[in-house]
Amino acid sequence: MTDAARLQKRIDDLARIGGSGTSVSRLGLTALEQQARDLVAGWCKDAGATVRRDAAGNLYARFAGNDQGAPVVLVGSHIDSVPEGGRFDGALGVCCAAEALVSLTEASVKFARPVELVAWADEEGARFGVGLFGSAAAFGKLPEGAAELKDKGGVSVAEALRALGESGDPTKAARDPKGIRAYLELHIEQGPRLERAGKALGVVSDIVGIYHGRVTVRGRQDHAGATVMGARKDALVGASELIRALELIAALIPDAVGTVGEIAVRPGAKNVVPGECVFSLDIRAPKQESIDLVREGFNDAVADVTGRRGLEISIETLQTVAVTPLDEGIRDLLLSASQAVGVDAPLLVSGAGHDAQNPSLSGVPTGMIFVRSTGGSHTPSEFAATADAALGAEALERAIRELAAG
Ligand code: GLV
Ligand code: MN
Ligand code: MN
What we know:
Helix content is 34%, strand content 23%. With 406 residues, it is of the alpha+beta class. It is elongated, with a radius of gyration of 22 Å. The two termini are 21 Å apart. The chain binds glyoxylic acid and manganese (II) ion (2 copies). The site of one manganese (II) ion (MN) has 5 residues, from loops.
């Protein structure tokens, strides 16, 4: 039986790592993420689990089953955050998984097959640009050359991993999906639908597809006072036209969203016409055709701005994640587990990306529970109530028990 006060303490203790007030900045593959892993590892070791870290920085805590060779039930989420993010995104799933497994252990429940808690590394991709990093590595889905990607300070993924004591080759984290009976992930909803429906829990039916890219606009660096307006090739003004075009195009396609969240201008001085501007692209939709339509519209805008402004513009694809339907059997199990804790959980499509996409796209039966959250997400105001989180942990506990039984 989930202990709500202990669950809240886990959430609070984890939030202190990289935390300030309700804001959390705990980027992936950093010393802070490692501190978070150590905290979670300690909870699991105290309950008798065997813990290990893999070559991508993922933490696994194994709770034994009668048949040690049987495919495992894997349950978890991620422990990194975006810069100035909240206390619950990812962290809640790891805290609830730990609480469910510790409470099953305390109740002396014997598993027929092993159950592993996982805390995935660097889900947000905020430092190196590739999201779902740890789970992509575990399922052989890392983009080519991921180890060579560099952060703003010039440190590569390989170097960051070596600083944690790993070899620097994250592809070594790959595991056989056939060795996994099922993957479960609890996560905050990060949107308003459960709150509006007055429900504490939801069950995810599908997860959106994602396109991540980087646009480089090259113009001509020049003097801000001496260069007349008609003689400029301003990279930032060209970029701003494209950013606005993305907003307009995405708004025309039902269910699609398009975001520019990162931008860098060179050389970056108030009296210099910008010579270069690099910005990120994040395009998502529940249907691949919708993502393709937004990309096509954006490419047309690039051709238009290039021609009109005499700029050089290139688009680099950083990562694509396919639209992901989740397993119907696990979905039904999570719906009945939610019923058993008194919640008539609605089915929801997730607009956020999740580590669950990698096991699911690798053939592992996968399911997700959403816990009602308020205050938005990827912001310090993100919030989930203790009572809702405890209901989620309790439903997760029931689902684990069922899946680990045979
Ligand atoms: C992760 O939070 C994502 O959806 O980008
Ligand atoms: Mn997130
Ligand atoms: Mn998340």
